[in-house]
Amino acid sequence: MTNITTCAAVADCDLSQGQPVELVMKEGLLCATAVMWTGAMRIAMSDAKKGEDIGIFNVEGLVELQTGKTTVLKVPAIQEGGSRHVDLAKLKKELGKAKLVGAIVIEALSVLHRAGVEPQCFYGVTEAAIEAVHTGLSFLVVCTDNCVPSLIRRLEE
User: Fold this and answer.
1) With bands split at pLDDT 50, 70 and 90, how would you rate the model's confidence at 95?
2) CB-side exposure of 132: number of CA atoms within 13 Å?
3) C-beta of residue 1 within 8 angstroms of C-beta of residue 38
């Protein structure tokens, strides 16, 4: 962030009005913490309990961001047998590594259900994946072959 006078964050601990704070990204959320890492001072606009939203002013400089990773798992389209032709053990192994999962198309949703997983996203999956990686979160997308080119194109943009 540069040249932003105020912003909203989640209080990472109890904070007091006027208290110097540091802004950090934690699990995809902008958090205000009393622990100072960079020495760049921002100021809490009000009191806030841990987990509450809080306004921060005197914001200048950069917040360190890690980029997340998008993993794409292809499943057969219904014309090729759909979810019935997926190695569930292999799928479950990959799903075990993921916190955020999205399904594009019915075949993907069906195979996730067969694996005992409810995706966080079924609509707007591409946009959700883009937002996740921009905030440092990784995202696993399950889709058919015909969805991959447009998904990759949007992710690269």
Assistant:
1) very high
2) 23
3) no
Strand positions, DSSP E, 17-98: 20-26, 29-33, 42-44, 53-57, 70-75
Under 8 Å between Cβ of 126 and 154:
yes
**Length of the chain as a residue count:** 157
Q: Which residue type sits at 66?
A: Q
Cβ 89 vs Cβ 54: under 8 Å: no
Residue pLDDT, tens place only, 107-149: 999 999 999 999 999 999 999 999 999 888 999 999 999 999 9
37, 20 contact by CB (below 8 A): no
CA distance linking residue 118 with residue 39, whole number of Å: 42
pLDDT tens readout for residues 41-58: 789 999 999 999 999 988
Residues 6+ apart with CB under 8 A from 120: 100, 101, 102, 128
Q: How far apart are the first and last CA of the chain?
A: 21
